[in-house]
Amino acid sequence: MNTIQKIELETAKLLINGNFIESETQEWQDIINPATQEVIGRVPFATVEEVDAAIQAAQDAFASWRQTPIQARMRIMLKLQDLIRANMKEIAQVLTAEQGKTLADAEGDIQRGLEVVEHACSVGTLQMGEYVEGVARGVDTYTLQQPLGVCAGITPFNFPAMIPLWMFPMAIVCGNTFVLKPSEQDPLSTMMLVELAIQAGVPAGVLNVVHGGKEVVDRLCTHKDIKAISFVGSTAVGTHVYNLAGQHGKRVQSMMGAKNHVVVMPDANKEQTLNALVGAAFGAAGQRCMALSVAVMVGDSKQWIQELVEKAKTLKVNAGHEPNTDIGPVISKRAKARVLDLINSGVEQGAELLLDGRDVQVQGYESGNFVGATIFSGVNTDMRIYKEEIFGPVLSIICVDTLDEAIALINANPFGNGVGLFTQSGAIARTFQNLIDIGQVGINIPIPVPVPFFSFTGSRGSKLGDLGPYGKQAVQFYTQTKTITSRWFEDSHEVGGVNTTISLR
């Protein structure tokens, strides 16, 4: 039965200079519960004037915010993490209603973002410069890590809590001001986090929010006062953002599409491996940039395929708020149609469909955007289901004879977000991690997303820009290194003559 908790119809506000305001735009989009097709809110597509006002507010706030003591900025992060923890369940309910993922996964979404906020509380040590005394006679050199100015973030629908929390806390704790553009498909949970940031003490203008589509994105990419842009989303949009913003002199980090593989060796622990594969492939309905898309079965591990299918059959498809749900709906009817089209292409191109999730029916939610767990074997690298990011609960299986073949296969794929290996051999693991050309590697871990003490290091076709989100790389991205070389003379010091060489003496 449909027991979803009713959420009052809500209009997503803009946040400009500390005020939550109604947009004056004429263009609006419904926020739709993907399990029920119920309209639960509306989101405005901000006008150019509203975007410019948000950027101006951030620009005006920067002068004083950059001078705010770093301890004061960290205390705001300490307060924010406390507020997020206290309100996690309420945020998760809204997140599930607008995005579709299970309540448990929604809380996980928030938790992984919360970890970044916690790490931001230690920015004092992360933002320290370097100092060397006596690089020449009486000369010292040191560096400062200074904020850039106004930064912007463009976030995707699949993690409306985690990805915004990857961005604005690290940016503002480093002394920058920020303009956030959440996904127009599920902005309500993001706005709850933004409200908590204001409650935590973020001053007016330091954090601003605008909503919209391509016009808003392009304005952020081209506005003269934006210094840096962080993006997470599709390859097509990420490439556009990187190119357009780069042409206008912005620093850009663009985390994009993926095709993540897991290699299964015959010596792996079978039960643990199969459980991990099922969870990584079908959790969040496959709508993760780090989701497992391809299982590469090496040698005799191909004999485990049927057991993998049987485990996947036990997953419960239902609305995300219903108890014991494993797979919720995909975000929209359009997304479902695309996933079904790719599944159909796999059948047409000759892959063997071992588990078909196309016709799943969920009682009480007949209008939901549901796709069940789907598994193909006999997949080759020319098929669309291998070449394209599906972003749905679809797993492709490829069988090879050796580890070398598996490594060659994966290294030939253009994406480089994540890869996993399941084995009980340390020698095999060491060989694999050295030879694989992927930015993030999991050993007996299928989704190797690092904790915030490190950085998210997707590579190749999954990333444009040199520095990834959160961790030390985020501090590097959101700060400018200024190097100072100084010499001080005492009144009695012998001045000497003119020196026309480049050396310091």
UniProtKB/TrEMBL annotation:
Keywords in alphabetical order, please. NAD, Oxidoreductase
Which NCBIfam families would you find in this protein's record? MMSDH
What is the organism of origin for this protein? Acinetobacter pittii (strain PHEA-2)
Q: Which GO terms describe its biological process?
A: L-valine catabolic process; thymine catabolic process
Keyword Transcription regulation assigned to the entry: answer is no
Similarity comment: family membership: Belongs to the aldehyde dehydrogenase family.
Q: Highest taxon of the source? A: Bacteria
Q: Name one GO molecular function term.
A: methylmalonate-semialdehyde dehydrogenase (acylating, NAD) activity
Which residue range or ranges hold the Aldehyde dehydrogenase domain?
A: 20-484
User: What's a Pfam family this protein contains?
Assistant: Aldedh
As recorded in Swiss-Prot or TrEMBL, the protein's gene is named: mmsA
Per the UniProt record, which EC number(s) apply here?
A: 1.2.1.27
What is the recorded name of this protein? methylmalonate-semialdehyde dehydrogenase (CoA acylating)
The record's annotation in InterPro entries points to: Ald_DH/histidinol_DH, Ald_DH_C, Ald_DH_CS_CYS, Ald_DH_N, Aldehyde_DH_dom, MeMal-semiAld_DH
